[in-house]
Amino acid sequence: MAVSWDLKSLLPDIPPEHRRDFLVNKLAVGFALAVRPIVAQTTITTDANGLTAGEVKIPVKDGAIPGYRACPAKGRLFPMVLVVQEIFGVHEHIKDLCRRLAHSGYCAVAPELYARQGDVSKISDIQEIVGTVVSKVPDEQVMSDLDATVAWAGKSSHADTTRVAITGFCWGGRIVWLYAAHNPNLKAGAAWYGRVEGDKNAMTPRNPLDLAGGFKAPVIGFYGGKDAGITQESLEKMRIALKVVGDPSQINVYPEAQHGFNADYRPSYDKAAATDAWKKMLDWFKKYGV
After folding, report:
1. Which long-range contacts (C-beta less than 8 Å, at least 24 apart) are formed by 96-102?
2. Residue 71 CB contacts under 8 Å (≥ 6 apart), including other chains
3. Is there a contact between 189 and 177 (Cβ–Cβ < 8 Å)?
4. CA–CA gap between residue 168 and residue 194 (Å, rounded)
5. Domains of the chain by start residue, with CATH
6. Contact predicate 73/23, CB 8 Å
7. Which residues does the annotation mark as catalytic?
8. How does pLDDT run along the chain (290 residues), one tens digit per residue?
9. How far apart are CA 88 and CA 80, in angstroms?
10. Could you give the count of Cα atoms lying within 13 Å of 290 in the half-sphere of its Cβ?
């Protein structure tokens, strides 16, 4: 169950004229509509036994956004992992990943980063999700909300914010690379099939590839060799850029895996690749002190 607190005492002192009504005030229940039907025989469900887990409200600069938090129920000052959603928002799969991390001793928090722009959980068409919500989410807003999530977790969830890592999937995989260039206190990142180059605009002005040489924490990237949306050529560009600047970040490719190979509720799930990458992620976090 989630720990309760006085939300007003945690919110920053925001003048009323700067507060806004958020379009998403609660997380989705179950799985996002666009990913149904669910592949029941491979879907992993992680219990919350021994955990403090549930929906929370995270104060940000213009109000509060919903999120999911899972931590060990006993103890304090747990290393923290930010969990960044897929394109489908913080639905059941992302919550489950938080619980898996909590069972490994982490305080894992997944903020709903589309809260101002819209609820993607009820949209069945992926192109509509992109066009009406995701394309309107500025990178600058995301970086600020992730910073706010770290600050909140340090105050309310017994997280040790001197030991913070980040992991993200699909849309969130790209965000991992960006946040590794943004937060000087981040220790490590793990990016799951997040694009490293692509179209740029006012909302997304830079690609991860543009930031090589500016990462403040090492990132391990996990990609599928059969990913139709992320080319091996773009990954090779990233490898070369990292090598040129002497960055210890890594790109790992699973030759037979598709995009979304860790998504156990979808046909793209590849158990062998997902299991190996998860272990590598945890080892990476430990290597860099998280």
Report:
1. 96/44, 96/45, 96/46, 97/167, 97/169, 98/53, 98/68, 98/69, 98/70, 99/46, 99/47, 99/48, 99/51, 99/53, 99/70, 100/46, 100/278, 101/70, 102/51, 102/53, 102/70, 102/71, 102/72
2. 51, 52, 53, 78, 102, 106, 107, 108, 157, 158, 159
3. yes
4. 8
5. 7-287 (3.40.50.1820)
6. no
7. 170, 227, 259
8. 333 333 344 444 444 444 557 888 889 888 999 998 999 999 999 999 999 999 999 999 999 999 999 999 999 899 999 999 999 999 999 999 999 999 999 999 999 999 999 999 989 999 999 999 999 999 999 999 999 999 999 998 889 999 999 999 999 999 999 999 999 999 999 999 999 999 999 999 999 999 999 999 999 999 999 999 999 999 999 999 999 999 999 999 999 999 999 999 999 999 999 999 999 999 999 999 99
9. 23
10. 31
Strand pairing class (219-224; 250-254) = parallel
Structural contact between residues 129 and 120, judged by C-beta atoms closer than 8 angstroms: yes
Structure tokens at 164: 């913070």
Amino acid at 57: K
Pairing status of strand 219-224 against strand 159-169: unpaired
Give the Cα separation of 90 and 66 in Å (integer): 9
The tokens of 229 are what? 């949306």
169, 86 Cβ separation under 8 angstroms:
yes
Runs of H (alpha helix) within the chain: 7-10, 92-103, 126-132, 139-156, 171-182, 232-245, 271-287
